[in-house]
Amino acid sequence: MELECFPTATRPPDIVPGRPQRAWMDAFSDRHPYRCLPMTMANTTGWEILCPVAFTAEWNGGIEQSDIKLAPEHPFAGFEDFVKSHFAHGVVTFHPATCSAPPRAGRLGRRPAQPRQGRHPAAGGPGGDRLAAFPFTMNWVFTRPGRVRFAKGEPFCFINPGAGQGPEAFELVQRPLERDLDLLDQYEAWPRPPRRLQRPALQARAGGREGGLAALLFQGRDALGDRRAAQAHVNKRRLKTLRLGL
């Protein structure tokens, strides 16, 4: 299936597959956060839209559009259309492109990009399956008055095709964990601070290391070391790069 993107500017922002790297994860001496499969998968489950020009945004705390000042670091044609103070109240709005998913691919979700000091991304998603003619925006909210910088090549938006059914199709049910003895057995096998690996068999499978349980997750094994759902297990995304269509 194709995820169609329709640029609305002469120089549209680049779109690239999501990258697993995060600066805060790199800051750990042992890169420990990269052992968390859910986080690395979330980082790469979609495409990043990159800022085509470096610029600064400054907010004085006011509620008017004029209270936000936007300035590119070098001349950039169409800058005023690319990013502006649309909603005021400390909100910076990007206009990257129009995108539509094929009807069966469901809604197109826009999850937040990486938060930055002094600004925070606002999540969003259109209300219909095919809104190619309706340009979407990505909004960042100042967390306090001040000045922030968006670097060239920095991801300012993250897009990913959603499921065909919305949350209205689901009913949330809460049951005691004891109702599922197999799940309870697996839950009790995972160490929770300050405990360590408790079962000798599990410790052996994990190589005797506390971090071995994370390895089981990457291998598609459950907490007891069984490879039950390995065929459906995914531990790395390999998304296709953007191509130009006719």
Report on this structure.
- The chain is of the alpha+beta class.
- The chain folds into 2 domains: 4-169, no CATH class; 177-232, no CATH class.
- The protein has helices at 23-26, 37-44, 79-82, 181-189, 200-205, 212-219; strands at 4-6, 15-17, 47-50, 55-59, 68-72, 83-84, 91-94, 98-100, 108-111, 119-122, 138-142, 146-150, 155-161.
- Strands 2-3-13-9 form a 4-stranded antiparallel β-sheet, with no helix packed on it. A 4-stranded antiparallel β-sheet has the order 6-7-11-10.
- β4 and β5 (68-72) form a beta hairpin.
- The protein starts with a strand and ends in a 27-residue tail after the last helix.
Using only CA atoms, what is the Rg? 22 Å
Strand order within the widest beta sheet? 2-3-13-9
Q: How many β strands by DSSP?
A: 13
Shape descriptor reads elongated
Tally the helices.
Answer: 6
Provide the domain count.
2
Structural class, by secondary structure, is alpha+beta
Order of helices and strands: EEHHEEEHEEEEEEEEHHH
> Which regions have little confidence, pLDDT < 50, spanning 5+ residues?
193-210
Q: What does the secondary structure layout of this molecule look like, with pairings?
A:
Blueprint: E1 4-6, E2 15-17, H1 23-26, H2 37-44, E3 47-50, E4 55-59, E5 68-72, H3 79-82, E6 83-84, E7 91-94, E8 98-100, E9 108-111, E10 119-122, E11 138-142, E12 146-150, E13 155-161, H4 181-189, H5 200-205, H6 212-219
Antiparallel strand pairs: 1-8, 2-3, 3-13, 4-5, 4-12, 6-7, 7-11, 9-13, 10-11
